[in-house]
Design goal:
The protein is about 20% helix and about 30% strand. It is an alpha+beta fold and about 350 residues long.
Length: about 350
């Protein structure tokens, strides 16, 4: 009887074990599967322009720091599914300032975007007039007066140094002839590779333009220059000069002062007597008679007669440290008819 009682007791424990195991498995299954059936939270709203209260089409709405997202329809409406709240929405649209908002409840939200005036109101020269950057297609680089002023440019072409897609090389420094070689996006043809330069709509040379008179420079590099036809195959550089404004006359002065020197000079003989002695030695080595007499060499060396025997160090004269100064004074003004 004791053995039979022990058998029933063991069967009872085994039965309880399987029942607990069954319920544990069921609980574990529900725990794993339940999140997949979790209900998504739908956030709906509308994106409007702040000033005009009009709908913004194509604005991007996404969770901050995460890829994907959605865009507004033709009426400015959007719908975005999220797993939980609160969330931070990141809203962006071309021509408008980016915005971030925190959402705590699933209620319709109206979002207002502010126009980015610093971008949309930028004006560049294109064709035979001007156009807002927001309406412009094509590759255009602009150099404005803020970049040009307070820089000691001696030639207008120097103001183009550093413009993207532009090669500018100043080969020489001869006064009045220091215009640079300009190439827009490399060499285009086998003949003339120079871009078309227009100053206030008229073909002109950059070397004849005073840098102090430049208001802005626009460089047209591709299809935006097509309005000028075949002459624009190597690009177009459009220069707009300053004009007076309506009102009182304005006086403006801009000046610069500095010193410049050669950074490197070849090691050459600059004394006439030394050069004459070396030249005679060269002739002797070649089996030829000397070119200069000892009397002439001594006359150049002593310099007793500077008019007949000048021993001038031309390197020292031509490449000495020199002072460079530039002064510009401008008077501008205008009324309803004249500027």
């Amino acid at each position: 009887m004791a053995k039979l009682s022990n058998l029933f007791e063991n069967l009872k424990k085994l039965s309880n074990y399987f029942i607990c195991k069954k319920y544990f498995a069921l609980f574990f299954t529900l725990l794993v599967i339940q999140p997949s059936f979790a209900q998504q939270i739908s956030l709906k709203g509308k994106v409007l322009e702040e000033k005009t209260n009009t709908s913004i089409i194509g604005a991007t709405i996404k969770l901050k720091g995460q890829p994907g997202g959605t865009a507004t329809d033709v009426n400015g409406n959007f719908s975005l599914d999220v797993k939980s709240l609160p969330v931070t929405l990141f809203i962006s649209s071309i021509g408008y300032k980016n915005q971030e908002i925190d959402v705590y409840e699933a209620v319709p939200t109206t979002i207002y975007l502010t126009e980015n005036l610093n971008l949309l109101n930028s004006v560049v020269v294109v064709g035979y007039g001007t156009q807002k950057k927001s309406n412009l297609t094509g590759s255009v680089s602009t150099v404005d007066t803020k970049f040009i002023e307070n820089k000691p440019f001696t030639n207008a072409s120097q103001a183009l140094q550093g413009v993207s897609g532009l090669y500018v090389n100043q080969e020489g420094g001869q006064p009045g002839n220091d215009v640079s070689t300009i190439r827009i996006r490399g060499v285009g043809t086998l003949n003339d590779n120079n871009p078309l330069v227009l100053v206030n709509g008229i073909e002109y040379s950059l070397k004849d333009v005073n840098p102090e008179d430049i208001e802005s420079i626009s460089v047209l590099k591709d299809a935006s220059a097509s309005i000028y036809g075949s002459r624009a195959s190597n690009g177009v550089i459009l220069v707009t000069t300053k004009r007076g404004n309506k009102g009182k006359a304005q006086l403006e002065y801009n000046g610069s002062l500095g010193w410049e020197k050669a950074t490197y000079l070849p090691d050459v003989v600059t004394n006439s007597a030394d050069w004459m002695t070396s030249r005679n030695q060269t002739s002797i080595n070649e089996g030829q008679p000397v070119v200069f007499s000892d009397e002439d060499i001594e006359a150049f060396r002593t310099g007793t007669d500077a008019d007949l025997y000048p021993n001038t160090d031309w390197y020292d004269i031509m490449f000495r440290t020199a002072k460079v100064q530039n002064h510009n004074f401008r008077v501008s003004g205008g009324d309803d008819k004249v500027k």
